[in-house]
Design goal:
Largest sheet: 9 strands, mixed
Radius of gyration: 20 Å
Number of helices: 10
Oligomer: single chain
Helix content: 25-40%
Order of helices and strands: EEEEEHEEHHEHEHEHHEHEHHE
Shape: globular
Amino acid sequence: MGTIFNVQKFCLHDGDGIRTCVFLKGCPLRCAWCHNPESLDKSPVVSFSAEKCTLCGRCIDSCPAREIKSNTLHLDRDRCTACGKCTQLCLNTANEIIGKEMTAEQVLEDVLKDKIFYDTSGGGLTITGGEPSFQPQFTLDLLSLARCKGISLAIETCGIGSRDFYKKAADLGTTFLFDIKCLDSSKHLQLTGADNTHILENLHYLMDRDADVIIRLPLIPDCNDSDRDIALLSEFLKKNSGRYRYAEIMPYHTLGTAKAKKIGMLSSYTHDSASPDEIARWHTLFKAHGADVRISE
C-alpha cells in the first residue's frame, strides 16, 4: 500500500508528452519554500478552507478538536485524528482529507485510463510528491507494473533516497527529473534540513550509468539564486555536459502558501512568485557562464 494525495491527469511539464502525475505523501526534506506542503508528512491531514466555512456548527458536535471563537472556527491540530467525519458533515466542502492509502494496482488502473494519450504523445506516468523514494517499495511496484503495460516511466526526486532505490528504478528504464536545490552543502542544509552529499552522489551514480536524467533547478528568490549559487550550478552543468539530457529552471510560485495555511502550517518563506525580471536575470547569468538551461513553464 502507498499513501497518495493526488492523481493529476493531462500533465505537460513533468516529462515527455502527456502524462499522469501520481503525488505521494512524505518527504524527508523541509524546504522553506515547499510547493506541496501537504505532502511533507506521510499520514493524512485535514485541509480546512476558512473562506468556505459558514459556521453552521455541524462538524463541531462530532469533533472535539473544533470550536468557534470570535466568530471563527478553530481547529486544534494536536487533537485532530484526521478521521474524516468533518468532510462528511460539511455542506460547503470546507474540509478535505489530504492523503489516502491505495495499492499500486489501484493506482495503475486509474493511470491506464489515459493510455491512448500516452501512446500518441510519447507520454506516460510520472511519480512525484512529496518524495517518491520516501515510499520506495510502493514506487518501485508501481513503476514495475506500469512498465509491464508499456507505459513510459518518470519520477521527480530530490535525490535523497537509497542507492538501491535509484538502481532498481534505473533498471526499469525510468527517467529521473532530478532536483538540484543548492550546491553549497552548508547552505543546502540550512535551506532544506539535509546535507546534499548523498544527493549529489546519487546524481553522479545515475549519470555514470547513463540513466535518462533531466536536471531541474528550483530557483527561489533570495534563497538559492545568488550570483555565487548560479555560478556553482553553471560550472556543475558545464562539467557534466553530455551526462544528462538537459537542465531547466523551475521558477518559484506561491501556490504552496495557501495550501500551507489550510493545513495549519506557517510558511517560513514569503515572496511573490518569481517575476519576469528575476527569471530573465537567472537565464542571463547562466548564459554568461556558458551553461545551457531551459525555463520551465
